[in-house]
Amino acid sequence: MQAVLPRAWETPVPAKPDNIVEVRGLSKFYGSFEALKEIDLDFPRGELISLLGPSGCGKTTLLKMIAGLLQPTAGQVLVKGKPVTGPGPERAFVFQDFALMPWATVIRNVAFGLELRGMPKAQRHEIARRYIAEVGLAGFEERYPHELSGGMRQRVGLARALAVDADVLLMDEPFSAVDEQTRRKFQEDLLSLRRVQRKTFIFVTHSIEEAVYVSDRIVLLSRRPGRVSRIIEPDIPRDGTPDEIRRDRRYLDTIEDIWDGLKRFVD
Ligand SMILES: Nc1ncnc2c1ncn2[C@@H]1O[C@H](COP(=O)(O)OP(=O)(O)OP(=O)(O)O)[C@@H](O)[C@H]1O
């Protein structure tokens, strides 16, 4: 009997993953010091991805190369399929110290990226007000950074990044400078922002718990020169309360599993 061959139009075409950022063969030397080695990574659109690894493994270096703030020694970063040669409007970097202008009000700080683009004041302030409200700072538009707590300044930094409507938000330890309560509140805000906006968040953290709690995907880097050691997709329930999630067996087991992998890199 003759074998029945599938006809061309019946052959399923595998869907191309929608990767907004692709990192290909990326290496970085600082002089003769090798900080990162041959990194290959895909960052799917709309996901929250964290970079985790021992101190000095090159997390910030990787983030800055994705931002276009630092040139790789070898390899390249592609954003929407195009090679990165410098910073671009589709990526916004939220700095660790949020780099707010101390002499400018919250609204001016949030609207600053739009001001640089030459957008008229009324229009940029309308947009800025929307994002200030979205990060929970309505009513603080006319305040100055020194009048705000660390957690509030952090939100201003986030609102500024959101206001320029970048597809990718790059965050270097966004939760490091605040107390635990603010940190947890901010994590919830980040998760709800991710639900409503289809942004891709890439962030550096030192906290395994935090990475597991907020991430769709965790990239674990090895000790320097940093390489991709593992990629973890935490399978934890997202529909419970924060306390329920933090008590869930899968959440706790994922933390344990990552710690097992990480502790061999710690001296
Ligand atoms: N401009 C620079 N010149 C020389 N060496 C650098 C420079 N920037 C970073 N390094 C070194 O490269 C390595 C990676 O630095 P990077 O800040 O990317 O690591 P990291 O994983 O973010 O560190 P941490 O977790 O401690 O914040 C470190 O050993 C660091 O000392």
TrEMBL record:
<dbReference type="InterPro" id="IPR027417">
    <property type="entry name" value="P-loop_NTPase"/>
</dbReference>
<dbReference type="GO" id="GO:0005524">
    <property type="term" value="F:ATP binding"/>
</dbReference>
<keyword id="KW-0067">ATP-binding</keyword>
<feature type="domain" description="ABC transporter">
    <location>
        <begin position="21"/>
        <end position="248"/>
    </location>
</feature>
<keyword id="KW-0813">Transport</keyword>
<comment type="similarity">
    <text>Belongs to the ABC transporter superfamily.</text>
</comment>
<dbReference type="InterPro" id="IPR003439">
    <property type="entry name" value="ABC_transporter-like_ATP-bd"/>
</dbReference>
<dbReference type="InterPro" id="IPR003593">
    <property type="entry name" value="AAA+_ATPase"/>
</dbReference>
<dbReference type="InterPro" id="IPR017871">
    <property type="entry name" value="ABC_transporter-like_CS"/>
</dbReference>
<dbReference type="GO" id="GO:0016887">
    <property type="term" value="F:ATP hydrolysis activity"/>
</dbReference>
<protein>
    <submittedName>
        <fullName>Nitrate ABC transporter ATP-binding protein</fullName>
    </submittedName>
</protein>
<dbReference type="Pfam" id="PF00005">
    <property type="entry name" value="ABC_tran"/>
</dbReference>
<dbReference type="InterPro" id="IPR050166">
    <property type="entry name" value="ABC_transporter_ATP-bind"/>
</dbReference>
<keyword id="KW-0547">Nucleotide-binding</keyword>
